[in-house]
Amino acid sequence: MNSEISVVIPAHNRAHLIGETLRSLLNQTLAADEIIVVDDGSTDDTANSAQAAFTEWSGMKDKGQKSPEFKVIRQENKGPAAARNAGFRVSKGEFIHFFDSDDLAASNKHELQLAALKSSGADIAYGPWLKGNFQDGRFHSSNLVLQQKGLPRGKNEKLIQALLTDWSVVPHACLFRRGIVEKAKLFPEDLMVGEDQFMFLSCLLAGGGVIHSPGTIEFYRLGEPGKVTESPDWAARRLLEWARFLLRAREICVLQGIEPLSWIGYRRRLCEALKDLKKSGIIDEPLMTALSKIVSKGIDAQICSWHGKCERLSGGVQQRLSGGRATRSFCFAPITREQISLLQELGYHYHPPKRLPWF
What we know:
This protein is α/β, with parallel strands linked by helices. It folds into 2 domains: 5-227, Spore Coat Polysaccharide Biosynthesis Protein SpsA, Chain A (Alpha-Beta Complex); 230-322, no CATH class. The chain has helices at 18-26, 46-60, 80-90, 109-120, 156-165, 178-183, 195-205, 234-255, 264-280, 285-295, 301-322, 337-345; strands at 5-11, 34-40, 69-75, 95-98, 104-105, 124-126, 129-135, 138-141, 174-177, 210-212, 218-221, 349-351. Helix 7 runs parallel beside helix 8 (234-255) and helix 8 (234-255) runs antiparallel to helix 9 (264-280). The chain is globular, with a radius of gyration of 20 Å. The N and C termini lie far apart (56 Å). The mean pLDDT is 89.
């Protein structure tokens, strides 16, 4: 059976993790046709480690097990968006799985999401994912499972509102039809934060149909020192890039007749972005001016401040009662027995999040 799936993995200095990541993809119940690793200017042995992992798996796989076409592309360091785009351009599959180089996929990921897309005719399938740390044969969960359930299906504007107010999507938890990625014009390479959210937003604005695919799960690795987004130097850059994303997102929405300023969650994000930039001492006059012009157009900073406080209070109550914390759009819930079994297939035992006492 032809799965028609291409996996694209951007990787930077992941020599110690890329092998385990690849094995979770190579051992899928429905094999991909090709796996493409894009070495984005690594200074370690990422490319050779990826090739060695594939060669080792090929020598140990069952005789009837399908072997995907495997490619390693090397490029100078340009960031995850450019790496994903480079992999996509050489890929052949009708369905694309953009996966991170340090995370793990449940073995039924491709089978369930491909079935969901084909049966529904949708363009994007998204599924549950869970953040945590891998240590000593255990996966220490930091939260409940995010996207255990899907958002209500309907007009894409509802998903766009969620995306720009209180939600986010990770590409590795999704499977995309090739056509919708092309309509979205790939990932914006000039954004270093929110580039994946921008691509997803572009898919929605292009009319992409979205379906939730329960029954599988992705395991998102935290606490990895090499992760750019967890480095101390990234904090200031993140504030700038997040503000740029918010402004760019509004621009493309307005072109489609959608005004994000009508949503209090988006207005609050703008107010917080401007406040954070001022507090940090970061100076970017064009960006600050653009933000200030929008914020001054009738945005009530006091209302946005109270909205933020209410969300934080609600999150604190959630944490103490359930051990998990997320906005409603993430539809979070405890991990299932089936998902724990999928984790065990990957060689790890499940360690639940710490439930804080009520006080």
